[in-house]
Specification:
Beta-Lactamase, Heat Shock Protein 90, 12 helices, 56% helix, elongated
Length: 517
């Protein structure tokens, strides 16, 4: 068997690889404007995606067209060379066969040719690829009316290497062209946005940042020609102008209001000073003759030669004068509290001795109100020898509480308790003080408890008419206790038969060791 072979050199088109274009220098300046930079980035992203998509669509259509052109060579062989090749086989013209096969193999679309004849001859061109499209032609010879006689077979493989190479070439060229268009469009869009929008927004921001509404000139203008129809930027400028004008008007109103308030506060302070001075002077001037009146009334009550009726009149007058004296004292104390004239002076104080004074004062108050009430006291035996507190102010609070208890209790008893209470401060165990004043009087309802410490307030109008008073005693006691860093509250639970129980709680700062430490 003769084998006629000719290995032609396969021409493989080189791929076109393009380097990316560096835009770092160009983009560096854009990042100084974040809005413009984001606009460029988003435009590039969208343009890049659209570029890749459009490039893929274009290349798909091009590949299909070029593939059809490559496979069209099979039809050309069937139509133009088949008869010539059959004649050459029939006449055994091997030179003509080589010429025909070389001509077909010269086509870049053909990668492999194989011709086999029935006589055992075989011709081969190129290298076979199983994956490439192929076509087998039966070569025959017909003589007159006789049936066709098989002369051989021609197998043709079509190569798509050239097509793929051209597709890649087109891909990179088209992609880079589209990307360049996208970059140019993004930069143009950035420039247009800068000219039309962002530069004006920066000027507006600088104006708003630098404008002094109080003293500045409201001269915000856009650096462009007047437009026949206002756009969004004009609306923003108009809104800022209106806001600046409203802010200036509001600031002017506020300044006037501040000046008026300063003036009113100065007048109020002056009036308060005058009132405090007046109340202090009048209280002193009134209490001085009132003390004399109380003294003379007491002498009348004690004189033996005074008739019983006049003695009774003197007793009633004494009670009235004493009530007036108490009211004047409370009003003066409230005035001093309002003017911040009350000071707390802490000194080492023997609480046991002080509590005995409280009991004696409570007994005197009960006697003054002519009540048959028992006064009891419970003092904790574990009390320290001395505590750092203002004994006079603490006595004032307890006296107010015991006087109220004597006033509103008709029968039963008043109890004064002085106890240590355990406390934990900054992770350490220590103790403070709790002073209680309880009575078995009429009690205070849940609704009335909310206003018991308000000024000029009593539990109800009936009690005021029955017992008198201005409702200042508990208010004064609460405010003085706050100045002492103590807490005065009304116990919400009724226990041991007591209907009303006030608690004064002093923290561990009253202890001498804690204070000195």
């Amino acid at each position: 068997m003769r084998v006629h072979s000719l290995d032609r050199t396969t021409r493989r088109p080189s791929h076109l690889w393009c380097h990316r274009v560096s835009c770092s220098n160009m983009m560096g300046g854009l990042w100084r404007n974040s809005l413009g930079a984001r606009l460029v980035v988003y435009s590039l992203l969208i343009g890049s995606v659209l570029s890749v998509f459009s490039t893929g669509v274009q290349l798909l259509l091009s590949y299909q067209s070029q593939r059809d052109d490559a496979t069209a060579v099979l039809d050309q062989i069937d139509q133009a060379l088949r008869q010539t090749l059959e004649f050459a086989l029939w006449t055994l013209d091997f030179d003509q066969i080589d010429v025909i096969l070389d001509g077909v193999a010269a086509n870049e679309a053909v990668s492999y040719l194989e011709l086999t004849s029935v006589t055992g001859d075989r011709w081969e061109r190129g290298a076979a690829r199983e994956e490439s499209p192929s076509q087998i032609y039966a070569l025959t010879h017909r003589h007159l009316s006789e049936p066709p006689e098989l002369l051989g077979k021609l197998k043709v493989h079509v190569s798509l290497d050239a097509v793929i190479a051209r597709i890649w070439e087109q891909f990179w060229i088209t992609l880079l062209t589209n990307l360049a268009k996208a970059y140019i469009a993004a930069l143009a869009l950035f420039y247009v946005a800068h000219v039309l929008i962002t530069r004006h927004l920066r000027n507006i921001a600088a104006h708003v940042d630098d404008t002094n509404v109080q003293n500045g000139v409201l001269n915000l203008r856009l650096d462009r020609k007047q437009r026949p129809m206002p756009d969004d930027l004009d609306s923003i400028v108009s809104a800022i102008r209106n806001f600046e004008q409203r802010a200036r008007d509001a600031l002017s109103d506020l300044q006037r209001e501040v000046q008026e308030r300063i003036k009113s506060e100065a007048e109020a302070r002056e009036a308060l000073s005058v009132r405090s001075s007046f109340i202090g002077t009048m209280s002193h001037e009134v209490r001085t003759p009132l003390n004399a009146i109380l003294g003379f009334l007491h002498l009348i009550e004690m004189a033996e030669e005074v008739p019983e009726k006049q003695r009774h009149y003197a007793h009633v007058a004494t009670k009235a004068a004493q009530a007036l004296h108490n009211q004047l004292t409370n009003v003066l104390e409230v005035s001093r509290l309002d003017s911040k004239a009350v000071t707390i002076v802490r000194n080492p104080t023997n609480l046991r001795r002080l509590s005995e004074q409280w009991r004696d004062t409570a007994v005197a108050s009960v006697h003054f109100h002519q009540k048959s009430i028992e006064v009891s006291m419970d003092v904790d035996p574990d009390l320290d020898d001395a505590y750092n507190l203002d004994g006079a102010r603490l006595t004032q609070i307890v006296t107010n509480l015991t006087d109220n208890a004597a006033k509103f209790t008709t029968s039963g008893k008043i109890h004064i308790g002085v106890h240590r209470v355990a406390m934990r401060v900054e992770g350490k165990d220590t103790h403070g003080l709790e002073i209680s004043v309880a009575d078995t009087g009429e009690g205070i309802s849940t609704v009335q408890r909310k206003s018991v410490f308000k000024r000029f307030t009593q539990s109800d109008a009936g009690l005021r008419r029955a017992h008198g008073g201005s409702g200042l005693g508990l208010t004064i006691s609460r405010e003085i206790s706050e100045l002492m860093d103590a807490e005065l509250k009304l116990d919400t639970e009724e226990r041991d038969g007591f209907s009303t129980r006030f608690l004064i709680t002093l923290g561990c700062n009253v202890r001498l060791d804690t204070h000195n430490g």
